[in-house]
Amino acid sequence: MNQDDLKKQVAQAAKEEVLKRMPKGQYLGIGTGSTANWFIDLLAPHRDHFAGVVSSSLASTERLIKLGFHVVDASQLPESIQTQSHPLPMYVDGADEINPQGHMIKGGGGALTREKIIASLAKEFICICDESKQVNTLGKFPLPLEVIPLAQAAITQSLKQWGGTAKLRLISSGKQEGQPFLTDNGAWILDVHGLDIKDPVQLERDLNQIAGVICVGLFAQAKADLLLVGGQQGVQRVQFSK
Ligand code: 5RP
After folding, report:
1. Which of 35, 69, 31, 32 shows the shortest CA–CA distance to 52?
2. CA 217 from chain center: how many Å?
3. Protein residue whose Cα sits closest to atom 6 of ligand 1
4. What is the pLDDT of residue 114?
5. Is there a catalytic annotation at residue 204?
6. Which tens digits make up the pLDDT trace of 56-111?
7. Which residue among 96, 126, 169, 185 is best mutated to probe the pocket of ligand 1, counting the most ligand atoms within 8 A of its Cβ?
8. Phi and psi at residue 152, in whole multiples of 5°?
9. pLDDT tens-digit profile of 144-200?
10. In the chain, where the domains are located
């Protein structure tokens, strides 16, 4: 199986997991990226199982709407649900890297801020990925930071104290090739290379303190609760301790 087959396989397992464990009539959080896209496509025939879905990007929202899902803005959930500490029972999303503790790097698709917001609304984060995303130490994949554009230079300078080299993410094809990649929030992404992330929880805390950083693509203070990982031998289920 190639990587795309593995993503489809794990998305199928996630679909079964969600339909088995989520009673009918609730709201589901759905992420962004190619693995999340498989999940959306496979879940589409079951859209009426859910009162609605909350999406972490404009791209996922567009796909969900085309497939007939009822997409609800995170701040427009019914009041009886909105006031709960976790309005969503589950959030299903991919990752760029995940370590044995369930800490992740996310944001390869640029949707990290909304992903972190929707994940924070969910009782359980179900990470779905293929086995190439499993690592012992995070940081080989450049860490995405969503930043306020005018703070770019100062943030780049500041990151040097952790050994990080920041590269502004640019649009890689089309008419706007070479222009800064704009997030759904109208901000920029810095991809930070060279970090050796020994303590993801502390680093996430530290980087969150830099003025102008909107969101750090480390999901460590709040990590995955369950990992479904697709490999050549099938889908493995890894439950993380709180
Ligand atoms: C998007 C993300 C994605 O979950 C991450 O990039 C993994 O993507 P893919 O499923 O395409 O490998 O964080 O911002």
Report:
1. 69
2. 8
3. 108
4. 98
5. no
6. 999 999 999 999 999 999 999 999 999 999 999 999 999 999 999 999 999 999 99
7. 96
8. -50, -50
9. 999 999 999 999 999 999 999 999 999 999 999 999 999 999 999 999 999 989 999
10. 3-133+221-239, 143-216
Say which DSSP state 105 is in: E
Length of the chain in terms of residues written = 242
Per the annotation, where are the binding residues? 32-35, 93-96, 106-109, 133
2-22 core/surface letters (b: 16 or more CB in 10 A; e: else): eeeebbbbbbbbbbebbeeeb
Structure tokens at 199: 């303590």
**Could you give the CA distance from residue 202 to residue 208 in angstroms, rounded to a whole number?**
10
Q: How confident is the model at residue 139 (pLDDT cuts 50, 70, 90)?
A: very high
pLDDT at 241: 86
In angstroms, rounded to a whole number, what is the distance separating the alpha carbons of residues 170 and 108?
13
Report CA(233)–ligand 1 centroid distance (Å): 22
**pTM exceeding 0.85:** yes
Closest CA to 117 of 101, 152, 93: 93
What tokens were used for 70? 């009822």
pLDDT tens digits, one per residue of 223-242: 999 999 999 999 999 999 87
Minimal CA–CA distance to 160: which of 200, 199, 193?
A: 193
Which one from 17, 62, 79, 115 is the annotated catalytic residue?
A: 115
CATH class, range 3-133+221-239: alpha beta
What is the CATH T-level fold of the domain 143-216, as seen in this structure?
Alpha-Beta Plaits (3.30.70)
